[in-house]
Write a structure and sequence with these properties.
Number of domains: 2
CATH architecture of the largest domain: Orthogonal Bundle
Distance between the termini: 86 Å
Structural class: mainly alpha
Oligomer: single chain
Shape: elongated
Order of helices and strands: HHHHHHHHH
Number of strands: 0
Helix content: 55-70%
């Protein structure tokens, strides 16, 4: 069993490593950041880092999550208000050059690192999507979202346009874009009265 002094030293080393990783990525970028460089900045040996993390991506992900936690959605009672707040904040975060570059590099790394991919999905993207779905469930119960909608698909529809623009870099992010997504999403999500529902029809297969 570790003594209190050993635990304190361990905690200090852990914090120093995360701080060093964040500083390194901010100053020289993800590609040039190395485990050796992080260790030197933190004043620890490489083996100390590998005791807690399996790769550079794993360290940087932890550093990123330390500074940018995944929050629960606001619930003002008005889905449109909450959606506008969240999408504006998401667009602003992706428009931040250092955060965007780091996250983009992590997404590339995780294509070849199954452990990193699992961590990104379970600790970053997964919680974001689940928090969004919980807010939609609440709105659905409150009559603000159509009861027949597939909420898993709805969540992807909300964030898909942002990721599309961010990954392909087709246009810059701004508040106007976030608001446009909000307006379209609210129109698609709102309940449709029976009279307004489109009935699915089957083609007439009779031959003339």
């Amino acid at each position: 069993m570790n003594s209190p002094d050993q635990r304190r030293r361990s905690d200090r080393a852990h914090t120093a490593i995360l701080t060093a990783a964040a500083e390194s990525v901010s100053e020289i970028g993800y590609a040039k950041t190395t485990i050796e460089g992080i260790a030197a900045r933190a004043g620890v040996g490489k083996q100390t880092i590998y005791r807690w993390w399996s790769s550079k991506g794993a360290v940087v992900l932890d550093a990123l999550l330390t500074e940018h936690t995944v929050d629960e959605w606001p619930d003002t009672g008005e889905l449109e208000t909450d959606l506008r707040l969240v999408l504006r904040a998401t667009a602003a975060e992706f428009a931040d050059a250092p955060i965007s570059a780091t996250f983009r590099a992590l997404l590339l790394d995780m294509q070849h690192d199954p452990a990193l991919r699992e961590s990104v999905m379970t600790r970053m993207l997964g919680p974001q999507l689940e928090a969004t779905k919980r807010r939609l469930v609440s709105a659905q119960k409150g009559g603000q979202v159509d009861a027949d909608l597939d909420l898993d698909v709805a969540v992807e529809v909300l964030f898909g346009p942002i990721y599309h623009r961010w990954i392909l870099q087709t246009h810059p992010f701004d508040q106007t874009y976030a608001d446009a997504i909000t307006d379209l999403a609210i129109r698609a999500l709102r309940p449709t009265g029976k009279a307004g529902r489109r009935r699915r029809t089957t083609p007439d297969r009779r031959t003339p």
